[in-house]
Amino acid sequence: MMNDYISMVPQAIGNGTGNASSNQTTDATAGATPSNASLTALLRSTSAKVSDILNKSLNDEDISEQEGLILFDTQGRDLDALIATADKLRENSVGDCGTFVITRNINFTNVCNMGCKFCGFAKRKNEAGAELLSMDEIANRAQEAWDRGATEVCIQGGLHPDLKGDHYRNILKAIKAQVPDMHIHAFSPFEIWYGARKSRMSTADFIQDLIDHGLGSMPGTAAEILDVEIRKKLTKDKLSTEQWIDIITTAHKLGLPTTATIMYGHVDSPKHWVEHIGKIRTIQQQTGGFTEFVPLGFVHYESPLYLSQPDVRPGPTADENIKMHAISRVMLNGWIDNIQASWVKLGPDYASAMLRAGANDIGGTLMNESITRASGGKNGQEIVPADMVKMIEKAGLHAARRNTLYQTIEKFERSATLELVDTVCRQTIPVMEIASSDNALMPRVSGALS
């Protein structure tokens, strides 16, 4: 059992970070989701403290932030038990199914004056390489994506000083006029904050206007770490923790689903990580509006934060990556069913391994991902659906293509022909229920409809 789980994770190279290279290989297909008996036996061989925490999660009880912190300190058999438990919880939540989405990233401008220290993407307005895509170009890229089978475009950009408040609305109108059935997953909370200020509108009115013009969901990026001191170091706290939470919860109350993210492995620590996950869980208990949680390891290679400050870490370690995905599954069990492993951040082999450590999704085929690449990411900007299927099958799971809201579109047989079949994958549809009062908790139920 111990070797089955630890051997799935490729060891980091170079400076010891978890940014695995494409020439590393692992074979996760040998690992099977642990049976109840084998998991029970493994838990009996771990420390009493860790065993108690993991059993709580297996009994669908929330573990505390302090208990999550204990899990980040696991090694040896305790770590094996954590990974096996996360794998079992993944199976309990979504079945033996790994998913992906065909999507295109459209970064409509790289001009931004916010000065976030970790960002290698931003340019000044008159700097070489600065760009602002026209509405026609954005719509044409969406059309190209649709023609290649995409069901989603993910649209984000820098906070260009010359943007007018209606720029975000006009992007939606341009896409919907040309590709009316395309799902638009767009605009981070930072962009919502900026657009509302530019429009002199309340956050709620601005978001509602975007919904009225075709916004289908919102990425929960710009979260980084939801801690005041860490955010000051990363972004000068220009979008505070309270503001991020307010924008996200406002979107949920208006019926707009969002994702949730964490960016880790820079000037933070496990204490900040469990507090961040705890905040995400609390929001989900109140609104039910998150569709997925996406851990994003810090890519350091060309990040100004790393290049200019000696105390900044070069991204998370291999151990931290696997613990982050496993503990996210354990802490969010029963609240957020979908944990995504970002192949862009981790590399395909590494992302595949995470599918047996709590994750159930590997994100999108992308087309034109430029933000991670601008910070020196080494894993390319697009892979085709057949590659996604292979990554999922390598982990020993059945592959399925989904849409943005985790509704299953295609299920694949384990064969080179990728023939469409019915498998054991469950159709996962996030349940969007808004609590009747700000302090009410959502019922603790799975977000999947079988």
How would you describe this protein?
It is a single chain. The protein is 40% helix and 11% strand. With 450 residues, the chain is α/β, with parallel strands linked by helices. The chain has a four-stranded mixed sheet, covered by helices on one side. A four-stranded parallel sheet has the order 2-3-4-5. Strands 6-7 form a two-stranded parallel ribbon. Strand 9 (398-402) and strand 10 (408-411) form a beta hairpin. Helix 16 (348-354) packs across helix 18 (385-394). The longest helix has 19 residues, at 76-94. The chain is globular and about 60 Å long. Mean pLDDT is 82; it is low at 8-30, 369-380, 417-423 and 427-450.
- Overall geometry: globular
Strand content: 5-15%
Report the major sheet: 4 strands, mixed
* Count of alpha/pi helices: 18
Query: Based on DSSP secondary structure assignment, what is the total number of beta strands?
Result: 10
Low-confidence stretches: 8-30, 369-380, 417-423, 427-450
Average pLDDT level: 82
Q: How are the strands of the largest sheet arranged? A: 8-1-9-10
Structural class: alpha/beta
The sequence of SSEs as H and E is: HHHHHEEHEHEHHEHHEHEHHHHEHHEE
As a whole number of angstroms, the C-alpha radius of gyration is: 21 Å
Question: Approximately how much helix is present in the residues?
Answer: 40-55%
What is the end-to-end distance? Answer: 30 Å
